Amino acid sequence: MAETICAVAVDAATFAIDKLYSYRVPDELREQVQIGTRVLVPFGFGNKRAEAIVLAFRADAGGRKLKPVTEVLDDTPVLTAQQRKLALWMRERLYCTYFDCVRAMLPAGLWFKRNETYTLSPAADLAALRQRGGAEGAVLALFDQPGQTLALADIRRRLGGKSPVRALDALAGEGVLTYRSNTTQRTGDKTEKMLALAVEAATALARIGRRSPARLDVVSVLADGGWMSQKELVYMTGASDAALRDMVKKGLLRVRYEERLRTPDLSAIERADPPVLSAQQQQVCDGLTALLDAHAPRAALLFGVTGSGKTQVYLKLIAHALAQGRGAIVLVPEIGLTPQVLQLFAAQFGDAVAVLHSALSMGERYDNHKKIRDGRAQVVIGTRSAVFAPVRALGVIILDEEQDSAYRSEQSPRYHARDVAKYRAVQEGALLVLGSATPSVETYYGAEQGKYPVFRLTERFLGTALPEVVIADMRGQAREGRDGLIGVQLEAALRDTLAQGKQAILFLNRRGNSRVIGCALCGWVPACPSCSTNMTYHSASGRAMCHYCGASIKITGRCPTCGGDQLFTEIPGTQAVEQEVRARFPSARALRMDADTMHTKGAHEKLLRSFAKGEADILLGTQMVAKGLDFENVALVGVLDADQSLYAQDYRARERTFSLITQVVGRAGRRTDTGRAIIQTYSPTHPVILAAARQDYESFYARELETRQALRCPPVCGLTTLTAAGEIEQQVLQSLLALKNRLQSLMEGQYADVKAPVLGPVAAPVVRVMGRYRYHLTLRAQDSARWRALIAGVMREFLQDRKNRGLSLFADGDPDL
Predict the structure, then answer these.
(1) How far is 688 from 710, CA to CA, in rounded Å?
(2) What distance in Å separates the CA atoms of residue 137 and residue 151, rounded to the nearest whole number?
């Protein structure tokens, strides 16, 4: 019989050596190894077992002697054919490994954890071995006696983070240490033990007699022949677990295990009638439905003002897709939006809805993924990673608030959910709907170029007017010596709103109690020891924290440098605003929504439900409160510091500022009354502020596109950044200079057809993070297969060059700069 050879993507392969590796499938594993299953294979010179996924079978070994697959980890494939194609597409475009893409698609509960151990030989002469120096001696010093076993994680921890791999491999090669590894899935199926009578009730009663009332009660409860969980049976009868096990052993009871999905209980959500659309909504819905009915790849922009009822259109469109036996994915940018969205969609589609986002436990994500994969859920609600949901017969993908930067991943693979959604729509013949009141400049530019149609909603759903917007100039108040972040006009509006029994939202895109804390006597400011940035003070914990690496120090009230007690704070954050609100409006009930208060499970849902019920008067927070939220009693919105993001260095700063202000202003007056919004700014005549106040996207877009054309930034030109990081700053700079020269040389010769300017190297906005310096090169060129081949090639050269040992390098397309 001919050998079976499989081609696998290996988890342990870095980008520099990433490819499909060939392995021989042993005869005893031929039936188990399938395309899409994960396996363990020996990898590298040490033949350590590594996790891999089978992506293809090959006809022959090309005359080479192949290593064998050692173990199959999955009973059935974990990737569909469409997902495998998507992984290959992502890998080609995102400068990452095959396995990076696979890992992005699977829920964390499906991943495997490896327990690696090293055992000192029972015959080892420990005293003699300890005479060795260097890394091997340091490793051997950790063992107390022959035969002792230590986990690799423990060895790394005790060595203070120094990599022991080379020393361990050498000692294992000599036979001094024995390496072992076992792999287990992080989360499995949750089951519940169910019990039923194995004999007739009369027979069971006769065999028990009268000696055990609890056992007699068990028989009585199960006498109808039904099944009951052991937990319920113990509660109802008082029988112990041991007693029930004994009844099973004696053949009185039989056992089975039923699956229990760790998914949201949607049964308590009252089903609602289908939404009734306005004439304008119906016209838009009809247009989108026509595209859906084409059963061909389509994309469209749904451009509607805030409060125009885009969600009602989504519901109708998805109902139409379900009627055709097709599924849907609805993406939202913030975890905080999922409770409200889930409530709306579950009221329409019931248990056909599943939810996916990072705030779920590992088991919940695993079970929701399983529910989707098995076809028990046809509608998926989630954040960025939900774009990979294995929905059967996918008909429509909706990106709500499509302009939001949260749809871009900052970890490998550095994908944008919009790009993945476009590919899936093409691959599966689905409709992609990009919804927003403030479309990204790239999306609107694409619509102008005729890539997809635009459907407009120019009126609010219930006929209410857009909020009345007041621009409050904060410069005069600063000269008058007014303290705090709530200006005179906003304070008066808040008092008026509270007096009417209405609610208000205050928006400040800044966490913490203060951006800076320092000493007024000596000038001390807490700086992160590992990152080139100052720490942020959080009064709730009394600590200054680095928002990059998480390092923190206790603020005692005295300067650690000079001992003085004259500490100052500047640029208040959300905590300081909360304190100011409580001081100015002591009878008002305020809630704060930011990353510091929303870290516990269910915190988003609990807070939003409380505010919706009227249990608080003022909701203040960061961008979590700016998008998608719909509260009928909110009459006032205050933007406390509109300039905060306006003057950031990246080219998207103006777009981000316009979008945030427009979105948060749109939270006011969404039902019967015309709302009010007050924008506090130190730049009251800035065109972005004025356009946001008017909710005038077209004028903002026209001006912004002119700027992008002048700067040669997306969408008129593509950007690629190559970022290198390392512990030695000079090494990072020298390596990037060499990389720049290599790029310029290649673009003068082999790649002259994609010649582009190379800018830099320049420091990242925060140059040092977790002890590593970061610099990047920037290249302006349109994306193409040739361009990607150039970038991927120089990256592999860089990572294989011994001079660059200890450095990392990654590429990012159209990043925020």
Answers:
(1) 18
(2) 17
